[in-house]
Amino acid sequence: MSAQTLYLSILASSMALTESPNPAALASVELVTEYAFDSNVVAKVMVVDQKTFTTAADPLDNLVFKISLNDKIDGSTITELKGRLYTGGGVEALEEQHADNFSYVTGKLDFHGALDSQYDFFESVTTSYSASNAAAIKTALKTMDALNELGAYRTKQVELAVPASTVTDLTPTELKNALLDMRDRPRYLVTCDVASLPHIEALAEVMGKLNCHVLLDIGNITDWQSAVALTQTLSINDHRFWVFWNPNKSRPSNATTVLARKKWRPCVGDYLAQLLLRNAATNAAGIPPIYRPIAGYDFPVSFRDIEKIGGLTLDEEAQNALASAGVNVVINERFEGGDRWIYGDALTQYDSKTSALRLINSSEIETYTANVVIGIAKKHLLKGMSSYIKDATSECERFLDSCVVDDSGKGLLVQSSELGGRYYALSITPRADDPFSKVDIKFSRRPQGCARQAFLETTVTK
């Protein structure tokens, strides 16, 4: 979508938030953002009189505005900005006219639009008012019950509905280019949209170029045969592509009464959250514990009051068919001490019965180690050839040594019989056809797998 502009207008006896400027406004705040809003977003505006000295040119410099955007369903804050109004011209005018007074510039709401970092919520913020309207603006703020005295126990604020954005879906090409142009390499791409195969193919193309993972939730499907058929139709035979299915319904996580009815919801949001929390638990060498897949007893699904969709039975035939199609299903499993709703498998879309790459954690280990080695190789480019080989080899080996499994079984790489009992093999050598400017990097390793099945043989003896 293109940028959206909102106008916060202070009128004679009210306040309005619209998508077009109001000519009757005594003061206005123009907010430009690339983010989109649905109908469940509200803006809360409060003003505090700091009782500080003001000048005739800027008589409202003592009023501090706090504007927050909130989710009206759960009350959570989406973003907020705090500052004073300026008589007009935006941050460019502030910089030009007050270049020697940085604290004055940063105290204005307009400064929020000057930060210009990658994740700024607002592309620009421009405030404006006429000094001759200062008294009328103060009176209006008091009339609408938005003006607070400094240190007041009970705060006053105005709540306004935020206009819902008009969102146009990106084309597959636009989606691909937007992801490829990101400064930060995305590690996981998540989608719940199975209606557009070209969009899924675009994600798969980005996955191939950036060596990341795609997580697909196949949606509200009520029988396992359809889940298997849909997954097989995608035909993406790649270990970096993971498919999930939640054949259950549950209450919202913030439900406070039984009137919050149970509904189907995708599971990849919960899965991704647990994935990122797991990745944050790095060891002393900065290596995330990706040898442990998000599945099984230790990673229960956090939905409330889960129950299976009526009429669905996941018997042995169904579970075998889903596993064969590489579908990871949210199921209820009985354990010693009770039952849990869990991600019942850890399979990728790689079509193999024996390869490690059919396992999610092995897939992550493969991409993670490859990407780090690639990053190190790039880091040392444009050095002298001898220095490049020595430095790149040394840094790669330090990293890979920190990935091997320790005595407690934690780690990414295990010993390989094909590598003579080593955990990995790495060589960086000058390329035969151009030894002056090119090198060949050969990298082999055996990632840790995960135990999907256990076979018990039991006997009774005397």
Task: Give a description of the structure.
By secondary structure, the protein is α+β, with helices and mostly antiparallel strands. The chain has 10 helices and 19 strands. The strands form 5 sheets. Strands 4, 5, 6, 8 and 9 form a 5-stranded mixed β-sheet that branches. A 5-stranded mixed β-sheet has the order 10-11-12-16-17, with helices on both faces. Strands 2-1-3-7 form a 4-stranded antiparallel β-sheet. Helix 4 runs parallel beside helix 5 and helix 9 (360-379) runs antiparallel to helix 10.
Structure, briefly:
25% of the residues lie in helices and 24% in strands.
List keywords for this structure.
single chain; 462 residues; alpha+beta; 5-stranded mixed β-sheet; 10 helices; 19 strands
Shape: globular
Helix content: 25-40%
Instruction: Kindly provide the radius of gyration, computed on alpha-carbon positions and rounded to a whole number of angstroms.
Output: 29 Å
Whole-number mean pLDDT: 93
Order of helices and strands: EEEEEEHHEHEEHEHEHEEEHEHEEHHEE
Strand content: 15-25%
Number of DSSP-assigned strands: 19
Cα-to-Cα separation, first versus last residue? 74 Å
Blueprint (SSEs and pairs):
Blueprint: E1 4-10, E2 15-18, E3 27-33, E4 41-49, E5 63-71, E6 77-83, H1 90-97, H2 102-106, E7 122-129, H3 134-143, E8 147-149, E9 158-161, H4 172-180, E10 188-191, H5 197-210, E11 213-217, H6 224-234, E12 241-245, E13 248-251, E14 263-264, H7 268-280, E15 304-308, H8 316-324, E16 327-335, E17 338-343, H9 360-379, H10 385-401, E18 424-430, E19 439-445
Parallel strand pairs: 4-8, 10-11, 11-12, 12-16
Antiparallel strand pairs: 1-2, 1-3, 3-7, 4-5, 4-9, 5-6, 13-14, 13-15, 16-17, 18-19
